[in-house]
Amino acid sequence: MTDSEEKKPLIAAGEVDSDDKEWDGCGPALLCDPRRSPHRFIVLIFTCFLNFGSYFCYDNPAALQTQIQDDMGVSNSQYVLLYSLYSWPNVVLCFIGGVLIDRTLGIRWGGIVFAGFVLGGQVLFAMGALFNAYWLMEVGRFVFGIGGESLCVAQNNYAVTWFKGKELNMVFGLQLSFARVGSTVNFNVMKPIYSLIAKSVSPGYRVLGLSLFVGVGMCVFSFLCAIVLAILDKRAEKLTKRKTISLEEKITLSDVKNFPLTVYMLFIICVAYYVSVFIFIGVGTVFFTTKYNFSDAQANAIDGIVYILSAAFSPIFGFFIDKFGKNVFWVITSVVVTIGSHALLTFTFLNPWIAMVLMGVGYSMLACALWPMVAFILPEQQLGTAYGFMQAIQNLGLAVVAIAAGKILDEKGYLVLEVFFMAWLCLALLSSVLLYIFDVARGGMLNMTAKDRAAYEEKKKKQEEKEKKET
Q1: Cα(218)–Cα(227) distance, rounded to whole angstroms?
Q2: Cα gap 262→251, rounded to integer Å
């Protein structure tokens, strides 16, 4: 090679790789090339905001609990039903949604369709309050639930499709962070908005209805994100010639029973952990006003601190888990921290901000470490169904436990309810330890360091390529 040849760039200015000739628009520029980080960063932004509207609206009832009960004239049990009606359809439908994403709709149409259900459900919820029809509010929460968890399945599939083998744990953390920003904004703005509208509108149920239409606007924003994501993903599939899953590779319902035992352990941890956090937050404002004599504003602030902290800490924990691995270790640690949080709230009168900060840290840690492990175990063509099944089991737990929590709260009070939540966390801890034991028996893949996992994945990829050539 001559000196002039050595100094010549690998791709000269103005040259286009033969594969790039098909590229449209700005071609393989940094921001337009799906193979490069800047473009994937753009996709990440829209992926993170895909569930923003859903999470903002999910806890509308918690932010306006007193107003809903007073304006609509409902009991604690009837109020908690708003959460059960979100969860009940997802006992089945988000599993079906996952299958539809894997076999029929794909993640692009799946994201658009389920974002549409979220938007429609919130419209009905707000209309029910506006016209003093609590039954319509319940219908709205049911429709909202049809889309909410299935939209999470689509979001998880987008994350794995674009970021597996790169920054997957951090991406899951960022998704949680952005979604929880939606929840945090909800807790901080809904009561002031209600108070502002109440100055010029009456009676109370109309004020409530108009306030809830703020959530409709957030859902419209997320629906638009679903459309943009579908366009970007379709373009990336065309330009990068991404492999599509053949009909023979697609999952069937009968394949679910053949999921490895470690996947089912992840399902159990998911249910047992989240019921102790989500349902507590759903009834938390009244807990803090009752036990600690907080004002409504103070109670809303401390109840929302879990989501504020998750917005800040989830990307950080995700980064560290991507860098160091050991996902099972992080899961066990998060469960122990959350048990400590509930113990402080149950048995002490220590400043509750300490306990809620611990809960926020534990919650952030678990979300980054738990969900990516499904993608470590199962092939890509099974992830929609697996994540759908995980969401389905989680929502079955949330629906049943929410009803039980309402009855315990009405009949026994908050002390017994807190012990109830701690029992679920103990189940999560036991399941986490068993997951570690079962994983070690299978080679310890889930608790590998990041370096060991990268080597494992590379070896696995070469083996698959070798077997493909031989066949």
Answers
A1: 15
A2: 19
